[in-house]
Design goal:
The chain has 428 residues and is α/β, with parallel strands linked by helices. It contains 16 helices and 13 strands.
Length: 428
C-alpha cells in the first residue's frame, strides 16, 4: 500500500460535522490502496465528543498519533468539555485570538505537532502529506515538512483562509500576514482540494499564479453505511416534523424562522398545532430564551447533542429538514458538511439561504424549497406550502443520481486519484 500522513487537528473523539470529512477519508483510504497515519490532538477542550465516531476509527485499524498541549481551549474545559459561550462572548474571544495568534490560536499545538511529525517521517517513508484546514497553522506546519522531507503535499480547504466569513483582522498587519502565509503555502502545495466552487473561485481570484487545474473540488458528502439498517422512529401522531441538525453561529440563526412560525401560530393555529420543530445539536442559550419569549415551547423539541448514529436516525425520522445560512461577508463560499448528510437522509429540505455555494449545491437535488434567510414572510409562505404538500402526501423526493454523487467512498476514490497524480508529477 501507498502511505499518506494525514494532519488533522479536528478528529474523533471530537464530535460535530467538522471532523467527519477527514474521518470518512481515513475510513475508506485502505479500499483504494492507501495506508493512513493520522496526526491529531490528544485530550483537549471541545464543545462535543462522540465516542461512536472514535469507534469508526478503531474499526478500520489505522495508526493515530496524538499530540497534547498548546491548545488554548483546554484552559476553559471542564470535565473534558468546553461549554459553548453566547455568541457575543464567542466573537470577543475570536477577536482576542486573532489579535495575538496568526493565523489562528492553534499555533502552539502546530509547533508541538511539527516535532512529532518529524519523528514519524524519519522512521517511515510516506508518499503523500495530506493536511486539512482549518486550522491553517497546520498548513504552515505541513509546508515545513514538505520542504524538509521532500514529500508531495496536498492541502485541503474545508473553509476559506484569507478573507473568510470567520476572519477577523484587528490591523492591516494581521490581514497582510495571513495573505502572505497563504501565498507561501500555496506556492509549495502540489495539489489543492476544496469543498466547493465558491472557495475555488475566490482562491484563484486572490492568487493569480494558480491555474484552474491546481485546485480540485472534492465536496463534502455522506457515508451510506451510516444509514444502513436504520429504521425511522415510529410516529405517535400525524404532525409534520421539521428538523434542524447542527449548531447556530454568527452566520446562521433560528431567529427569523422562529418569528415566522410565531406568525403561523397567530394566523393559522390549526396548522401550527400539527407541526413539530426538532433541534439536534446545540440550540444555544440565547435561542432557547427566544423560544420562551415567543411562547413556542410546545412546538419545539430540543434533543441536544446526540452521537452521530442517533443524530442520523433523527434525520430519517423527520418529514422535512431545515437548513439556514444568513447574509455575511463571503458567505457565498460557505457550504457546511451537514448539508450533505441531509442529502444522504433523502428528505425534502427547506433552504433559507442567499445566493452562493449552498444554493447551487441543492439546485439539482430535486426536493428543495428555497426562501430568503431573513424574510419572515417568505419563510412563513414556504412552511405553509410544505405543510399543504405534506397533508396531501405530495412532498417531493430527491433525485437519486444526484444523491449518489456524494457518497463518502466515491469522494475518497477521487482524492486518492489526486494523490496518484501528485506522485506521478514528482517522478517526472
Amino acid at each position: 500500500m501507498r502511505k499518506v500522513l494525514v494532519i488533522s487537528y479536528y478528529f474523533p473523539p471530537m464530535g460535530l460535522s467538522g471532523v467527519q470529512r477527514t474521518l470518512k477519508f481515513v475510513k475508506y483510504f485502505k479500499s483504494y490502496n492507501w495506508e493512513p497515519t493520522i496526526l491529531t490532538t490528544s485530550d483537549i477542550g471541545y464543545y462535543a465528543h462522540d465516542n461512536s465516531l472514535l469507534k469508526e476509527v478503531e474499526e478500520v485499524n489505522v495508526n493515530v498519533e496524538r499530540v497534547g498541549g498548546g491548545d488554548i481551549n483546554s484552559l476553559l474545559k471542564k470535565n473534558g468539555t468546553v461549554k459553548i459561550p453566547r455568541e457575543k462572548i464567542r466573537k470577543l474571544f475570536s477577536y482576542f485570538s486573532s489579535t495575538f495568534f496568526i493565523p489562528d490560536n492553534k499555533v502552539g499545538w502546530s509547533k508541538k505537532a511539527l516535532t512529532k511529525a518529524r519523528e514519524i517521517l524519519k522512521k517511515e517513508k510516506f508518499d503523500i502529506i495530506f493536511v486539512t484546514a482549518p486550522p491553517f497553522s497546520t498548513v504552515n506546519m505541513a509546508v515545513e515538512l514538505k520542504k524538509e522531507f521532500d514529500v508531495p503535499l496536498v492541502v485541503d480547504y474545508r473553509d476559506l483562509w484569507y478573507e473568510s466569513y470567520f476572519s477577523i483582522y484587528p490591523t492591516l498587519f494581521h490581514k497582510s500576514m495571513n495573505k502572505k502565509m497563504e501565498y507561501n503555502a500555496l506556492r509549495e502545495a502540489d495539489k489543492i482540494t476544496v469543498t466547493n466552487r465558491g472557495i475555488k473561485e475566490k482562491i484563484l481570484n486572490t492568487y493569480q499564479f494558480l491555474s484552474f487545474e491546481d485546485i480540485t473540488i472534492i465536496s463534502h458528502g455522506y457515508d451510506p453505511k451510516d444509514f444502513e439498517n436504520l429504521e425511522p422512529i415510529p410516529k405517535t401522531n400525524n404532525r409534520l416534523v421539521i428538523s434542524y441538525s447542527g449548531i447556530f453561529m454568527e452566520y446562521n440563526t433560528p431567529k427569523y424562522f422562529f418569528k415566522a412560525f410565531k406568525e403561523i401560530t397567530i394566523e393559522k393555529p390549526e396548522i401550527s398545532a400539527n407541526i413539530e420543530l426538532h433541534f439536534i445539536g446545540f440550540l444555544r442559550k440565547e435561542n432557547k430564551k427566544l423560544v420562551r419569549k415567543l411562547k413556542l415551547d410546545e412546538f419545539v423539541k430540543d434533543f441536544g447533542y446526540l452521537e452521530h448514529k442517533d443524530a442520523v436516525r433523527q434525520l430519517i425520522s423527520s418529514d422535512v429538514l431545515w437548513f439556514m445560512l444568513g447574509n455575511k461577508k463571503n458567505i457565498d463560499a460557505l457550504l457546511p458538511g451537514k448539508l450533505y448528510e441531509y442529502v444522504g437522509a433523502k428528505r425534502p429540505i427547506i433552504a433559507c439561504v442567499p445566493e452562493g455555494a449552498a444554493k447551487n449545491a441543492l439546485q439539482k437535488y430535486g426536493a428543495t424549497f428555497y426562501c430568503d434567510p431573513i424574510d419572515t414572510n417568505d419563510i412563513k409562505k414556504t412552511i405553509y406550502k410544505v405543510y399543504e404538500l405534506y397533508q396531501k402526501s405530495e412532498l417531493p423526493e430527491p433525485d437519486e443520481k444526484f444523491v449518489q454523487q456524494f457518497r463518502r467512498d466515491f469522494l475518497t476514490e477521487q482524492l486518492c486519484k489526486e494523490f496518484q497524480f501528485c506522485m506521478k508529477t514528482e517522478v517526472e
